[in-house]
Design goal:
Elements (H helix, E strand, L loop, with lengths): L7 E3 L9 E4 L1 H10 L7 E5 L5 E9 L4 E10 L7 E5 L4 H13 L4 E6 L10 H15 L6 E2 L3 E2 H6 L6 E5 L19 E5 L7 H9 L3 E4 L8 H15 L5
Parallel strand pairs: 1-3, 6-7, 6-11, 7-8, 7-9, 10-11, 10-12
Antiparallel strand pairs: 2-5, 3-4, 4-5
The chain binds S-adenosylmethionine (SAM).
Amino acid sequence: MSGRPKIRLFVDHALAPGERVGLSRDQAHYLTGVMRLGEGAEIAVFDGRSGEFRAVLAEASKRGGTLEVQEQTAPFRAPPDLWLLFAPIKKARTDFIVEKATELGAARICPVQTEFTNAERIRRDRLQAHAIEAAEQCGGTYVPEVDELVPLSEMLGNWPEGRRLLFADEGLSGAAAALSELPASDQWAILIGPEGGFSPAERERLASLPFVSAISLGPRILRADTAAVAALTLFQASHGDWA
Ligand code: SAM
């Protein structure tokens, strides 16, 4: 048996040895047109819930094809139960946040509209495609769901019991990060604001909510995309799956 195939593809189809999986036109184009694979080539596939499997390209044309699923090559590994709430910024930087949140092990990505958010809509499908591509490239077996954009106030109003929210508060810049002093929980979320930061009313509301802890991300004001990466990294190292 050869080693694990290098090309990895997410398929929206429950996987098990012996399954046959149809390829979309885009997937067939990627495998045959971009990666130049022919029939009989081996790739790795994952479905976001069952782990990774070896698969053989059984039929391939420009318009579609079929994969034959073989043995499992890696177990399913879910990330910690950590949501990333962020206010969408410019397109390329929002794409970056989704890509990095997937690589860094966010379980769910929740774009939120704050008072100073410029974006009024997002292309959820495009952002989801970025999350899938990031999972394919980083060897993950899980793909975080990207939600539709919702107002932050609505999200806070419907907040699920038991989940703690870490509010990255630029007003604390300079304070110690202090992630070690958080209350115990196994359900978490991180909130990152837009380039304009949070409004006084939002800060007041966040400060009044019992499930919120404000955290500092060090002595400098970070751009929102840098702040998302820094907060996810700090969390994973202290409470998550790097700890
Ligand atoms: N316009 C705001 C200001 O000048 O204070 C800065 C907003 S910052 C570009 C975007 C977001 O990143 C903030 O809302 C916050 O969530 C996060 N952030 C950036 N630097 C931070 C820090 N040192 N500590 C905590 N959060 C930070």
